[in-house]
Amino acid sequence: MEFDREGELVLPAARGKALRLKAGSAVRITNPFGTQAIDTWAFAADDMSEYLSMENVRSFNSVVCIDQGVALVSTERRPIITIVEDTSAGRHDTLLCACNPAIYRELGVKGFHRSCSGNMHEALTEIGRDIPFTPAALNLFMSVRVEPDQTLTRLLPASKPGSYVTLRAEFDVILVLSSCPQDVTTINGPDRTPRDCMLEILAPGAFA
Amino acid sequence: MEFDREGELVLPAARGKALRLKAGSAVRITNPFGTQAIDTWAFAADDMSEYLSMENVRSFNSVVCIDQGVALVSTERRPIITIVEDTSAGRHDTLLCACNPAIYRELGVKGFHRSCSGNMHEALTEIGRDIPFTPAALNLFMSVRVEPDQTLTRLLPASKPGSYVTLRAEFDVILVLSSCPQDVTTINGPDRTPRDCMLEILAPGAFA
After folding, report:
1. Which among A55, A62, A103 has the least Cβ separation from residue B77?
2. CA distance A66 to chain B (A)
3. B64 and A97: CB-CB below 8 Å?
4. CA–CA gap between residue B3 and residue B26 (Å, rounded)
5. Which of the four pLDDT bands, split at 50, 70 and 90, describes residue A34?
6. Cross-strand pairs, A85
7. CA of A194 vs chain B CAs: smallest distance (Å)
8. For residue range B70-125, what is the model confidence (pLDDT) as tens digits?
9. For B143-159, what is the HEC assignment?
10. For residue A208, is it within any domain?
11. Are A111 and A82 in contact (CB under 8 A)?
């Protein structure tokens, strides 16, 4: 697909990053090992109280996991970002909370451990923004399945090395991405190793 | 089960109510027709930023719907309320957003329509509290099923008339209940009629 590359950066393993995206701009997130979960949030740039809402996405689309074509709506139920390319295994998770300090305590970790929730707040602070809570994240590249008995199974990551997902901003947004720091469970693969991912910023109109 | 009744009130159809519950106190919610969905939130009384979190509940218990025995944990992953009695059909929903103004616009409603989201904020204001967002609600008496293809089916309410759910506060909490005002879809039954429910406040220790 044609596009103009406007910038390129590394999302370091276990770290977060907030990006200002103008309407129509996109970010391509490339997963070199195919194993790295990326917790994703989007906020309206001019009103952080409107944000990508997993509970509204499930209600709007009547699905519990995300593939290209599912409308990623905000708390106002308007599309805020759109998946315009996806070479991953898809079925991105909407059900599990971003990892947070309480989870790592539960898992027996002593002292500080990075978390997606902490990464999100840290990344917003770095661009002078703030929110007083942690919305549910869209967990890209993360595989969870609801069984017929309505229990939930965490699966190993199923995407090929080098697969990518491209998200387009439907209006001016603050996008926050976190390379999940989970190294106790196998949600980032059997070797429990968070990995760097690549971010390419693509010009408005590339995916019109 | 033995208990001391400390108070009784009506939760009017399509309205919300915020209750201060001391640690160990409980509220029994009786559904006279068995059809009324009750959207439920709980906040730590001394710190509203800690609240009952559907995404943490799903993660903590590895389930997507709620029956007695599932730990209803907060954003800090400690139990905040507990279901101590349940004579309903169970399988209470965690997946769908509280109804909100945008949903009613989507459904073609012109002008103001009450919503669970609006009820929650209104009820908090009535007791001098406020939060700047709408957490996902625990949707008591509401039936949603995840299919093998990971789509989501809204079912008719399945509880018998007069069935009840009793929630105990694990520490001092603000509990918010909303009788769902949905009268366009059949989530509150085929006659699309929100109904009054009864609330009984039960003394601390009744369900120790």
Report:
1. A103
2. 10
3. no
4. 10
5. very high
6. A166
7. 20
8. 999 999 999 999 999 999 999 999 999 999 999 999 999 999 999 999 999 999 99
9. CEEECCCCEEEECCCCC
10. no
11. no
d(CA B47, CA A188): 33
Residue with token string 């491209």: A166
Residues of A in contact with B64 (CB under 8 A): 64, 95, 146, 150-152
The count of structural domains within chain B is 1
Q: How far apart are CA B16 and CA B14, in angstroms?
A: 7
Residue A3 has pLDDT above 80, yes or no: no
Q: What is the pLDDT of residue A4?
A: 66
pLDDT above 90 as % of chain A? 94
DSSP for A20-36, written as a single string: EE-TT-EEEEEESSS--
pLDDT tens, residue by residue, A54-91: 999 999 999 999 999 999 999 999 999 999 999 999 99
Judge whether A138 lies within some domain.
Answer: yes
Q: Which of A49, A77, A97 sits opposite B106 (nearest CB)?
A: A77
Distance from C-alpha of A25 to C-alpha of A166, rounded to nearest angstrom: 10
Helix (H, G, I), strand (E, B) or coil at B57: helix
Query: What is the distance of C-alpha B32 from the center of its chain?
Result: 16
End-to-end CA distance of chain B: 11
| pLDDT tens digits for range A87-130 | 999 999 999 999 999 999 999 999 999 999 999 999 999 999 99
pTM score, whole prediction: 0.96
pLDDT at A126: 97
In this prediction the ipTM stands at 0.96
Average pLDDT over residues B162-180: 98
Q: Does B53 touch chain A (CB under 8 A)?
A: yes
A128 in B contact zone (CB under 8 Å): no
Q: Cβ of A161: how many Cβ atoms within 10 Å? A: 10
First CA to last CA across chain A, in angstroms?
11
In a domain, A161, yes or no: yes
Residue numbers of the domain that contains B110: 2-202
Specify if A207 maps to a domain: no
CB contact under 8 A, B103 and A77: yes
